[in-house]
Amino acid sequence: MPDVTPSLLTDRYEFTMLASFVADGTVDHPAVFEAFARRLPEGRRYGVLAGLGRLLPMVEAFRPDPDEVDWLLAEGVVDEATADYLREFRFAGDVDGYREGDLYFPGSPVLTVSGTLGECVVLETLVLSVLNHDSAIASAAARMAVAAGDRPMMEMGSRRTHEGAAVAAARAAYVAGFASTSNLAAGRLHGVPTVGTAAHAFTLAHTSEREAFESQVASQGVGTTLLVDTYDTEQGIRTAVEVAGTELGAIRIDSGDLAETSAAARALLDDLGATSTRVVVTSDLDEYVMTALADAPIDAYGVGTRVVTGSGHPTASMVYKLVAVADSPDGPLRGVAKKSHDKVSVASRKTAWRAYDADGVLRREWFRTDDVVPADAVAAQVPAIRAGRVVHDPDLEEVRRHCLAAVASLPAPARAVAAGPPYLTVVRDADDVPDVTTDHAHPATEGDPA
After folding, report:
1. Domain assignment present for 450
2. What ranges make up the beta strands (E) of 206-271?
3. In which band, very low, low, confident or very high, does the pLDDT at 440 lie, cut at 50, 70 and 90?
4. What is the pTM of this model?
């Protein structure tokens, strides 16, 4: 993990913009930024927000230490006046957001940051790096959880991604329905249950498969999981039962036609009397493969590459945009919006609302830019930070329960693995009063990559 404060987990242009705001005197003008996704990855019907629990403490701690300020100055990133500003910097604004584990759709204002222009603009890269990564993982993991049904899934993708990302990915996958992870740091830091027994190297390191199994059972007990496909799967199963007995916890299969092999494995285990021994499969699983394996006699899945890479979608495509700014330190906010082709944003701070039917199924989500509280609507956002301090800090189990309930609030067709358009697109309430200042574009929103 990087040995820097959260303030340097950012792009240079955040601080060069800050320097300009310090120079032109606008740094203390009130402002509002919002994070949202204009679209979902192709074929996805919903997204799952993750990473808020990691992000909020980093926002609270977003303050460069003196050595980092000196480095920024020496590198020419900031000038003396901006260095002085940073030496006294502490985020003192407010953050509102969708709860972690909640659903989001195109246009959902998942995070609203309010404060001064200077303290809000520097958070852009950090907000997006956390929310984009973790939400991509959670969105893929939620689909896999639906496909897996009652079969538990183990996250085991650490070797397929950056060592820091592996920890965040394990956390996000657990939020979205995975039962455990192979990553010990995720267990230590976030309390995610950890699992794991042995790899093929363990078997190859012994003079025979039998010797390897005997060693593992002696160390871990008969409840362990034995990897049976290093040489010949059928013989591996026979040897596993001979060594551990019919109370063997599980076998793992990591190759071949998993539907055919798992069926043969189940039949052989039953013939050998190991009727309670579970069948665990791994090997490039994702929601599509698990859907195809729904009728196979499989008890659990181990998923690696396809979950830590977001099942082929490495980003949730969220952006962080200025939507309102004041023209003086104590002036009123005016809405601002980006008008670039295919990158349009909607001016002014938004409040997001949801409606559910009598069965608890989500039927509508919309936003308003005024102060009206719609009747019979549920607010989508909760206060997360007030005056720079975190006020929303649910534990991971609460976040996980919320996620499972949120996904369950979708109608069955929207939860299906089959590709389709987003279940909802979030738009302005028809009764909302349109902004009259949306033609103003603030310089801070121009020329950026998103």
Report:
1. no
2. 225-227, 250-253
3. very low
4. 0.93
- Over residues 356-375, mean pLDDT: 95
Are the beta carbons of 307 and 140 closer than 8 angstroms? yes
Cα separation of 429 and 245, whole Å? 64
Residues 128 and 234 in one domain: no
pLDDT digits (tens, 9 = 90+) for 237-279: 999 999 999 999 999 999 999 999 999 999 999 999 999 999 9
Of the three residues 283, 308, 333, the one that is the final residue of a domain is 308
In a shared domain, residues 46 and 72 = yes
For the purposes of burial, counting CB atoms within 10 Å of the CB of 208, is it exposed (0-12), middle (13-18) or buried (19 or more)? exposed
> For residues 430 and 137, what is the distance between their CA atoms, to the nearest angstrom?
34
Q: Among all chains, which residue has been given the structure tokens 């013989």? A: 235
Range of the domain at 377: 6-137+313-445
**Which tokens go with 443?**
């310089």
Look at residue 6 and give its three-state secondary structure.
Answer: helix
What's the CA gap between 113 and 124, in Å, rounded? 10
Residue 24's CB: how many other CB atoms inside 10 A?
A: 9
The number of domains in the chain is 2
> What CATH number has the domain bearing residue 325?
3.20.140.10
Q: Which of 196, 187, 197, 148 is nearest to 166 (CA)?
A: 187
Task: Extract the tokens encoding 262.
Answer: 């798992």
Give the tens place of pLDDT for each residue, 156-199: 999 999 999 999 999 999 999 999 999 999 999 999 999 999 99
